[in-house]
Amino acid sequence: FDKLVDELELERDLSQNPLFNIMIILQNNEQSRLEFSNLKTKEREIDNKTSKFDITFNFIEVEERLRLNIEYNTTLFKQSTINRIAQNMKTLMSEITLDKKLNELEFISTKERILLDSFNQTQKDYPKDKTIVSLFEEQVKKSPNSTAVVFEDKRLTYRELDEKSNQTANYLIDILQNSLESKCLHPNNTRLKPSFPSGLKREDIVAIKLERSLEMIIGLMGILKAGCAYLPIDLEYPLDRIEYILADSKAKTTIDLETFKTIDSYSIDSPNIEISSNNLAYIIYTSGSTGKPKGVMLEHRGVVNRLDWMRKEYDLNSDDAILQKTPYSFDVSVWELFLPLMYGVKQVIAKPNGHKDNRYLVQLIKKESITFLHFVPSMLNVMLSSKGLEECSSIKNIVCSGEALSVKIVDEFYSNINHMKLHNLYGPTEASIDVS
């Protein structure tokens, strides 16, 4: 055994076996039981006090039966878990005697099966063929003069945001196809809307480097309308991270403040580019804490599914107002940015770095009558400690995600606040923001 471990060059750890952590034994030697002519014997179970492996299954053949003894590491398994595993083994053995095919064998109990099936009834209807863009444009038609976005003392209606994002899309199409024809000027000195460019590929990646502002939301929507996917670049990123992300993603171009000095000359008409629900919508890069940052690629349909659920779950409508304060390099920003625009909810954008200022946030929530917003638990803890949140009477729901939400914070929240609800969400970026 020692020679084998040495040959395999395994790292030794005294807390676990170096080769495997599960042992299965079948004791099927009928001669193993001692027999004496004039002496009665009986077996006695002995507690070994320690488990050699994480778990050992010891099957013993006794006449026509199998007996199972399980030895396990009590720091890893509860007794209730082992009892359940034993019951599952018993169910499996019974199933085997029924001459079933392997893929028909059941190992969980009827009660567990009912629980498992009911918990996994997650199929829901949602607009599978819709995109972020198509749902936004439907909302433009429904309420063109309603306020879509508020940033400090500036406001955009749905029509204004639609037109400005169209100009951005037409600008992108122009520079990406690099066609002289698309640069012809109309007699009124406005650039003509470019026809669909043969050189432009759907899902081209466009980086965006902007602080929170009206230009940011115009830029994001413009990128999507051009049939492209946006890549958020945080201005606080180190230069080498930015360079790596741009190179790794093969971004075709970048939208920044300089872009908005030229887009006003482009057509306000929709570029009419067909975007399907399985087209790429955005890429968000991981922190890189486990190596190089990796770009996570998300499609429109995943976002639509997630946001359709959120609208229904929280009964959001045109009377609500959502605060957009999460940096757009984090996936939580996706629902803050697009949920309001897709379903006619007012979006209020916090000033740059405003998400770190609890006094500013309280003032903004009161001023704009925010009803729905997000906090990472650590920031919620700061808000509770500094007071003021309980005075924000407009808030109906607060969502927490991004970190573990402790029972202590929840208890403190409800001991001070009783007019709003706290919700704990979780999900990896790869699964379109949240899954639980």
Seen as an oligomer or otherwise, the chain set is single chain
Shape: elongated
Q: What's the mean pLDDT score?
A: 89
Number of strands: 15
| Overall helicity | 25-40%
CA radius of gyration is: 30 Å
Unreliable stretches, pLDDT < 50, 5 or more residues? 179-189, 191-198
Question: Which structural category fits the helices and strands?
Answer: alpha/beta
The neighbouring-strand order within the major sheet is: 5-4-12-11
Can you write the helix and strand succession as a string? HEEEHHHEEHEHEHEEEHEHEHEHEHE
Strand-residue proportion: 15-25%
Number of helices: 12
CA(first)-CA(last) distance: 45 Å
Biggest sheet layout: 4 strands, mixed
How would you explain this protein's 3D organization?
The protein has 12 helices and 15 strands. It has helices at residues 2-7, 79-96, 110-119, 132-142, 158-177, 214-225, 239-249, 300-313, 332-343, 358-368, 377-386, 407-416, and strands at residues 22-27, 55-62, 65-72, 147-151, 154-157, 205-208, 229-232, 253-255, 280-285, 295-299, 321-324, 346-349, 372-375, 397-400, 421-424. The longest helix is centred in the middle third of the chain and has 20 residues, at 158-177. It is elongated, with a radius of gyration of 30 Å. Mean pLDDT is 89; it is low at 179-189 and 191-198.
